[in-house]
Design a protein that fits this description.
The complex is a heterodimer of chains A (465) and B (81). Chain A is α/β, with parallel strands linked by helices and 465 residues long. Chain A contains eleven helices and 27 strands. Chain A starts with 8 loop residues before the first helix and ends in a 17-residue tail after the last strand. Chain B is an all-alpha fold. Helix content of chain B is 52%, strand content 0%. In chain B, 31% of the residues are buried. Classes of the chains: A alpha/beta (465), B mainly alpha (81).
């Protein structure tokens, strides 16, 4: 659908004045946004991607960021393929998102897939050339997130829903440099990328191959003033002497529940910093920010947050705003918004002394360091082992990653007092999980139990909260 | 088994399970140069809680996180006192 004026990412970036002092700082190098004004990271091929549904499947965040700036308004859809998502899901994503083009830095090649007509390299370098960046489409930005099955869920946003919460200043703030631990192919990182692009600042991007200490040193050398990560990113950073390489004015946490301990530690290490923890989900978008340095959030945030309607129903927080995603893509995709337009976040909250606190998930989803794990997906892998009768995957609280995955497993026949056999089965199950699942989804502990509770419905009894 | 040897063993075991190249464990080794990531540390802390019965990371909201391997060991030795 053709869009109205000034609503593509490049329209906003290009109109924000002097680009010569604005950079994307990656581990592999720095790119001036002014170079993008007279060049292209797609070797001038953006026009070939006009109107197409394009997967951006790069290893480098810098390359993905540059491609996004060029393709918003030009492509019909951009699909951000997360760095940790195995490539064997590509055919499913191509089919479900009607993909006909791939942008990659070599992470993938042009597949023998009849739907993919166009393959454009993008390795994060900018070459001088003319590039028609006229915004013609209200590009759908598709974010991939974990679901209850092994297949990723595809969440459809637009530049407006993703950037709607960000106030564009009349003039770019001086000295502000953003940094993000969080990968920009995930909602939390993407929102920081857009914040930097829309508010006229530079941005320091992390790199999966880079140590936390090196990232902090690099962030410090670029004089980062505003920096964002999950509580787990911050807990990890606080275990490094390099935490003193930055002295931020503003520290932001999102993607996981921030507990009081991490807020206190950050305030101790960065006494000058304003601390904020944001509540956002890929589906519901940004709901609110908490700025008082305390865990949980004041109950009066519900009902008093401009442009965001919230309500608590059946114990879970529900959100309606222009920042929510529009739908899931794919066959038999679940409904994202209820009939009343509210997105059920599935986060269970409980009021105590004038504040709401997060107490668990209705669907049992486990958040390991900002990455989602649905128990059903892990159980399906464990249950594939021939010695396993059934299994129950649950969360175990952890002070480093917030939570870890643990599993209770019932074996078909427990070998009588033969510890060697049990040990071998345990190792087999772990091996199977490591082959099939991302590392954060592999159980950190497996307990063999005699029985698991099953309800009259025949379903496993789960305790989520 | 003493605390130091239990911690050393868990570092080695988790590194092996996760396919990580573990650095030589000296007391002045910064934890983030050990070759382990957040997930590895999370697993080590969970297992040490099971084996030693303490989790000094959650004992207080104001604890200062250890930065070196030696500090990590002292962190647990103090908590076990």
């Amino acid at each position: 659908m053709p869009q109205n004026s000034l609503t593509s990412l490049w329209d906003v970036v290009g109109a924000s004045g002097d680009l010569s002092a604005r950079f994307l700082f990656g581990a592999e190098g720095s790119r001036a946004l002014s170079d993008l004004a007279k060049g292209s990271a797609l070797y001038g091929h953006a026009d070939e991607l006009r109107g197409r549904s394009v997967i951006i499947a790069t290893t480098s965040q810098l390359a993905a960021a540059l491609a996004l700036i060029e393709l918003d308004g030009v492509a019909r859809r951009v699909i951000l393929y997360p760095p940790d998502l195995p490539l064997h899901y590509l055919p499913y994503v191509i089919k479900s998102a009607d993909v006909d083009a791939i942008v990659s830095d070599g992470r993938t090649v042009k597949l023998d897939n009849p739907h993919v007509e166009c393959f454009v390299p993008c390795n994060g370098t900018i070459t001088p050339c003319d590039s028609d960046r006229t915004g013609q489409y209200q590009t759908k930005w598709i974010l991939l997130t974990s679901g209850t099955t092994a297949l990723p869920k595809m969440v459809a946003h637009t530049f407006l829903s993703l950037g709607g919460a960000i106030a564009i200043p009349d003039s770019p703030p001086e000295r502000v440099v953003w940094g993000t631990f969080y990968d920009i192919r995930r909602y939390g990182g993407l929102s920081i990328f857009l914040r930097a692009m829309l508010t006229g600042t530079s941005l320091v991007l992390s790199n999966a191959q880079e140590s936390t200490a090196d990232f902090l040193a690099r962030a410090g050398s670029h004089r980062v003033t505003h920096i964002s990560g999950t509580p787990s990113h911050w807990r990890h950073a606080l275990m490094s002497p390099a935490m003193h390489r930055i002295s931020p004015e503003y520290v932001r946490l999102s993607g996981e529940i921030a507990d009081q301990a991490i807020l206190n530690r950050l305030q101790t290490v960065y006494p000058q910093a304003r601390l904020a923890h944001a509540f956002a989900t890929t589906e519901a978008g940004l709901a609110f920010e908490v700025n008082d340095g305390l865990a949980g959030f004041p109950t009066d945030i519900v009902g008093n947050t401009p442009q965001v309607e919230m309500k608590v129903e059946d114990g879970s927080l529900r959100i309606r705003s222009s920042r929510t995603a529009s739908c899931y893509l794919g066959d038999n995709a679940p409904v994202l918004r209820g009939p009343d337009g509210y997105v059920d976040t599935g986060d269970l909250i409980d009021a105590r002394d004038g504040r709401y606190y997060f107490v668990g998930r209705r669907d049992g989803m486990i958040n390991v360091g900002g990455l989602k794990v649905y128990p059903e997906e892990v159980e399906a892998v464990i249950n594939r082992h021939p010695a396993v009768q059934m299994s129950l995957v649950q969360t175990k609280k952890n002070p480093i990653t917030g939570a870890l995955v643990v599993a209770d497993v019932v074996l078909k026949s427990i070998p009588e007092t033969d510890g060697h056999d049990t040990q071998r089965v345990l190792q087999d199950i772990l091996l199977l999980c490591r082959e099939e699942l991302s590392p954060h989804k592999v159980p950190s502990a497996i307990n063999f139990v005699a029985v698991l509770s099953v309800a009259e419905s025949g379903k496993l009894i789960r305790r989520h909260a | 088994m003493n605390i130091r040897s239990e911690i050393t063993m868990q570092f080695k075991q988790v590194a092996q399970e996760q396919g990580m190249q573990l650095a030589i464990l000296t007391d002045d080794l910064p934890l983030l140069n050990s070759g382990l990531d957040s997930l590895c540390f999370a697993m080590i802390v969970a297992r040490l809680e099971g084996h030693l019965g303490v989790d000094p990371f959650t004992s207080s909201e104001d604890v200062i996180f250890p930065v070196t391997f030696g500090e990590f060991i002292h962190f647990y030795e103090n908590a076990a006192k």
